[in-house]
Design the sequence.
């Protein structure tokens, strides 16, 4: 059942949204959602890599031999990730310092390699672009939502992206639920959001 | 066999193109990244070790040609005189190169302060070289002429517990700075007094 380009795009925003429906990319999801700014930054970086690698791999899909396809995909993905890293260092250095090692880890983010192998290698560039863009934006939305919950309850602030301003959400008497910004809290939050999404899905 | 050659060539071509593209992007962003590192990483360290300076050392910088290397030095003004100079050197640490900036008083030839800029040391262990002020404070006041080493090597510096390699790396970097300073002292003084 072939989808239209628009459908390829919108599926990434709900039906196949990572990491809640397409349970991939959990490692960066858990790690960078301590603040909203980090979550948004990581989402945008991953979206850029996803779109670029999807399009390029789709364009080269007839040239890449099946036996070395994973190696070729990784070369393409790693190149774009390195470009993102260099551009981030040049234009958003504080964000680069905060995301640290998770930027190079986008190379092994299962979402990127997964879409390359499952979609871009078998479809034309325009649907691949829509797929990459949709899933990337969906990922960014998920990260933002999870980061918002964790940061608001865990630190009592909301860090506005680009400005870096940590806006206190509750009054000064608020006792932050610091469990939320630690690793166990990340897992619990992710689990709860998965649960809520499943409730909405099964109608 | 033919198939193997085709597979091999495909990957070689991919890698070559990728390498070329990345080299281009890197050289295009190199200056800008250096500037960003100065503002966000080196800048705070320089201001911290030259605490109390009446100028902004990051802005008062000059370059000196040391053989093939162009070094950037930062001037600090204390009591109305430009009498302190700081610059960076790198030495091998535990996880890679450690970047260290040391400030030297040109009138007394003594260390005014030492700070770590970039490193890849173990978090919580070697990283304390950057975060623990009592470690870097040891270098304060030490003469430039004397070598810098940890007590295990016969020197004066108390190494960070569990991070001897890192501590040695910082000492080596400070020694490099001291040597370079002594070697370039005439040029430095000319620049400072102008």
Sequence:
């Amino acid at each position: 059942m072939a989808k239209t380009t628009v459908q390829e795009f919108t599926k990434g925003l709900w039906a196949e949204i990572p990491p809640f429906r397409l349970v991939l990319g959990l490692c960066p999801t858990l790690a960078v959602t301590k603040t909203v700014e980090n979550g948004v930054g990581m989402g945008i970086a991953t979206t850029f890599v996803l779109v670029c690698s999807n399009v390029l791999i789709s364009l080269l899909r007839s040239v890449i031999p099946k036996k070395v396809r994973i190696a070729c995909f990784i070369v393409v993905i790693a190149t774009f990730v390195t470009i993102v890293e260099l551009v981030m260092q040049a234009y958003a250095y504080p964000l680069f310092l905060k995301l640290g090692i998770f930027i190079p880890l986008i190379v092994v983010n299962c979402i990127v390699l997964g879409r390359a192998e499952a979609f871009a290698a078998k479809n034309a560039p325009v649907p691949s672009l829509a797929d990459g863009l949709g899933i990337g934006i969906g990922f960014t939305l998920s990260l933002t939502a999870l980061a918002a919950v964790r940061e608001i309850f865990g630190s009592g602030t909301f860090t506005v992206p680009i400005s870096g301003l940590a806006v206190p959400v509750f009054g000064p008497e608020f006792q932050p639920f610091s469990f939320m910004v630690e690793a166990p809290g990340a897992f619990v939050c992710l689990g709860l959001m998965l649960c809520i999404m499943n409730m909405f899905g099964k109608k | 066999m033919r198939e193997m050659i085709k597979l091999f060539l495909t990957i070689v071509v991919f890698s070559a193109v990728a390498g070329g593209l990345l080299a281009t992007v890197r050289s295009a962003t190199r200056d800008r990244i250096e500037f960003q590192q100065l503002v966000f990483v080196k800048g705070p360290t320089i201001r911290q070790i030259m605490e109390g300076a009446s100028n902004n050392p990051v802005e008062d910088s000059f370059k000196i040609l040391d053989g093939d290397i162009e070094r950037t030095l930062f001037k600090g003004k204390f009591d109305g005189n430009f009498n302190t100079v700081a610059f960076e050197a790198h030495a091998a640490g535990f996880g890679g190169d450690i970047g260290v900036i040391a400030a030297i008083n040109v009138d007394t030839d003594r260390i005014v302060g030492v700070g770590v800029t970039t490193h890849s040391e173990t978090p919580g262990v070697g990283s304390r070289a950057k975060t623990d002020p009592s470690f870097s404070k040891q270098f304060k006041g030490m003469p430039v002429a004397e070598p810098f080493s940890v007590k295990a090597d016969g020197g004066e510096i108390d190494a960070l517990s569990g991070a001897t390699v890192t501590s040695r790396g910082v000492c080596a970097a400070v020694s490099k700075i001291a040597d370079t300073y002594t070697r370039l002292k005439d040029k430095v003084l000319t620049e400072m007094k102008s």
Chain A has one domain: 5-201.
